[in-house]
Amino acid sequence: MEGTLLKWTNYYNGWQPRYFVLNETGIFSYYKSSELIHEGCKGSCLVVACEVKVHPHDPLRFDLIIPGEQFFCLKAKTQSDRQRWLVALGTWKSRGTKSTTKTTNTSNNNNNNNNNNNNNNTSSLISHLNTINDELKLKVQELRLYETVLMQRIHAVKSIANDTPTPDVKKLDETTAMLNVTCDAFIHALDECVKLATGGSTQSLTSLSPISSLNSNSSSIQRKTSNEFNFKKTLDTTIVLPKQLVYRTFFSELRYTFSTLSPLLFNEIHSEQFLSTCEQYFELIDKLNGTTFNTFRSDAIDNINKLRNKISTNPKKFQTLYSIINDEISTETMKEKNSSTNALLWLRRSIHFLACFLHEFGQGDKSVEDALNKAYGQTLKSFHGWTTREVFSVAFRSVPSNEDFLISLAIDPHEVREALFERQILNEMLQHSSNMNVVVRKISDFYIEHNIELDGIVG
C-alpha cells in the first residue's frame, strides 16, 4: 500500500505532505514525494516492531511508535483513508507476529534436536513460552487499536442515523462500509488471540461455543499449573482487554444508574429511584465548574424537590412516575406552573442535556467546551430565551480542560495518565449516555402521546 500522508516535522514547519510506502516485507518508509522516490527514503520502520495508536481527538491522525527509539505522527486526508492505512498496518503486525513465532519455533526445534539434555529442553520450553507471551502482548495492542477505531465508527454511524429530519444516506453507506472493514479486522485479530490462548489450536473463534470454550480453557489451565512451569504471566496478558473495568471512576462508583431504569416501561419506573439516580448524575456539574453552573443545577434540584413533595402527599399512591403524571392528567392540573408534570418535563430535558454531553465528549474528538456547546444546541437551547442562553454561554467558557475534567472523574488522579484510563472512561460515558437517552425517550413518548409536551420559552 502507498499514498500521501501528512507527517509532523517540527514546530516551525508543522505538518508536511510525505509519500509513504508499506512494502511486501512489512517495512513502512516515507519519501519527500512520489516523484522523488529515486532520491531514497527519508526514514523507515518495521511495522511489527511498532505500536500503532489512534489519536483520541483527531479523526484523521494516527501515530507509529517504536518505544525508546522513534515515532511518526501522521494524518490522513480523510477518515476512510486513515481507515485503510490502519487496517493495512494492523494486518502486517499480525503477519509479522506469525513470522516471528514460526522462526522462533524452528530455532527451538533445531536446538532440541542438537541437545538431548533435559535442562536444555526446559530452557527451550521457557523460551517458547516467552515468545508466546510476547506475541500475545502484540496481539492485545492490535486489538486495542481496532477497538478504538471500531468504537469511533459505531458512534459515527449512530450520529448519522440519528440526524433529523433525514439521515445522509451516502454518508451512512460510506461510514458503514468502513465499519465493516474494521469489524473484519477486529474479528480476525480476536480469532488469532483465541488460538494463542488455547495453545495454538486451529479451531476458529466462530467454531468455539462459549461454554465448551470456557470449560476447555479452565481444565487446560488446571493441568498446566500443576506442572513445574508457571504460566501465570502468560495468562495475565490474555485477560487485560480494553473492555475490562480497570480503574475506579465517577461512573463505576455510582450507586444508582440509568442502566437499571432503561429496560423498564415508563409505567414501571419507580419515582424515588429515578429521582435518586438523577441526583447522582447532576454531581457531574461540580466537575465542570460548579459556580458558573449553579443556576442549571439549582433548577434541576428544584424540580426534583417538586416531585418529591408530590410523592410525600401520598407515598403509596405515587410510587411510579406514571402514577404522578397520570394523576395530574386526570385532574387536569398538568399545565399549572408548579405542577409535577412541568417539573418532570424540565428534569427530563436537563438529563437529556447531560446525556448528549457525555455522548459528544465520549467520542473522544471534542473539548469539554465544544461537547457542551453541541449538547446544548441539541437539547436546551431552543427552550431558552436570550438571557438564559448568555448565562450558559458564559458557563461554557469557564469549563476545565479535557485533562482536568478527566482527573476530576478519577478516584485516583494518578491513574489518568495510564494508557487505558481514557479509553475506559470514554467508553463509560458512551454507555451511560445511551441508557440515559433510553429513559429520556420513554418519558418523551408518554408526554407526546398525552399531548402534554410544553414548548414555552424560559428566560
Work out the helix count: 14
User: How many strand units?
Assistant: 7
* CATH fold call of the largest domain: Glycolipid transfer protein, GLTP
Highest CATH level, the class of the largest domain: Mainly Alpha
Overall 3D geometry?
A: elongated
- The neighbouring-strand order within the major sheet is 4-3-2-1-7-6-5
pLDDT averaged over residues? 77
- Strand-and-helix sequence, N→C? EEEEEEEHHHHHHHHHHHHHH
Broad structural category: alpha+beta
Query: What level of helicity do the residues show?
Result: 55-70%
Structural domains: how many: 3
Radius of gyration: 27 Å
Organism: Rotaria sordida
Membrane topology: Peripheral membrane protein
Protein name: Pleckstrin homology domain-containing family A member 8
GO cellular component, one term: Golgi apparatus
Please tag this protein with its features.
alpha+beta; about 60% helix; PH_domain; transport; Glycolipid_transfer_prot_dom; golgi apparatus; about 450 residues; PH-domain like; Glycolipid transfer protein, GLTP; PH-like_dom_sf; seven-stranded antiparallel beta sheet
